[in-house]
Fold this sequence. Notes:
By secondary structure, this protein is mainly alpha-helical. The chain has one domain: Ribonucleotide Reductase, subunit A. 67% of the residues lie in helices and 0% in strands. It has 13 helices and no strands. It has helices spanning 3-6, 25-30, 49-59, 79-102, 111-120, 125-141, 145-175, 185-191, 193-206, 211-240, 244-271, 277-300, 309-323. Helix 6 runs antiparallel to helix 7, helix 7 (145-175) packs antiparallel against helix 11 (244-271) and helix 10 packs across helix 13. The longest helix is centred in the middle third of the chain and has 31 residues, at 145-175. It is globular, with a radius of gyration of 22 Å.
Amino acid sequence: MTQSATLRPSKTWSHLAAQRRRPSEYEIVSTNLLWHTRDAKQPWDIEGFMTGWYQKNLFGCALKHPDWNKFRDPDEQVYRTYNINQDGQESYVDGLLEQFAAEEHDKGLSATWAETLSRLYTPIRYPLHLVQMASGYLASISPASTIACCAMFQSGDALRWLSRTAYRTRELANAHPQADFAKEERERWENAPEWQGFRELGERVLAAYEWGESFYALNIILKPALDEAVNRQLATAARRNGDSLFALLAEAQLRDSARSQRWTTSLVKLALEGEGNAEVFENWAKKWVPLAEKAVRTYCAAIPDHPEAGDMAVNGMQMTRSAMGLKS
């Protein structure tokens, strides 16, 4: 037998050959793309800070699985389809803003509710930027490209809603010049009592460097906490105060959050296949859940006309974790 007969080259997409069908677009452009995961002892070719960082925070993570590349996004989104889907989402939001602007909706809001929005809504661009940054970090430290892709799309979601919040801040400032829109958001994020629970939680999330804990703190703790407090409970108060635009925008944002929760749930279920990972999640819960509940209750206590907001938000967070298969 000749050498050319024995050294057969790998087929295109050889890592997907076992399924004996042509790979989908998602499989082709999303799977097995990370070269720095090939060797735990030498993730980067050049010795230095990055090698040590990835050895500790990627390969040294307490969350273990023999093959993280088994993870698949249940929506199988790729960059092309993400843009198609979100273009439709953005067109819907544009339509809402145009319609309510034509009706001079903001001028019809009471001064009391406008003040509430200046305290509890427009400062949210700071935690949204935090979610964007933390999602970007998660994408860079993930053990599989399919996880990294989901995190990058999540970062894009946060940037889009941050931009929408900034736009709404200017609209509200124009309609209510007596309020503090576009003036005090940073001050409130840094010092207002209602935001300090979220600020502490968010800053701790940014300092969670191990990839598994970063994923847990961001996707299972911080994002659901923000959604429950702002996009559900504050939205309920908005309806009671005649602000249907805020409620509709919150519903639109929750559609993105639902997609994020789908891939988070899939990754949690994959992780729970690994020995000892359930205990890892439980240990993280002891650290992170109290911080989230404190943040949510502190924020929700400032929501007017909705005394049950804190309890409902905490219950919603617990239901989210339970649906993911987590005990605590």
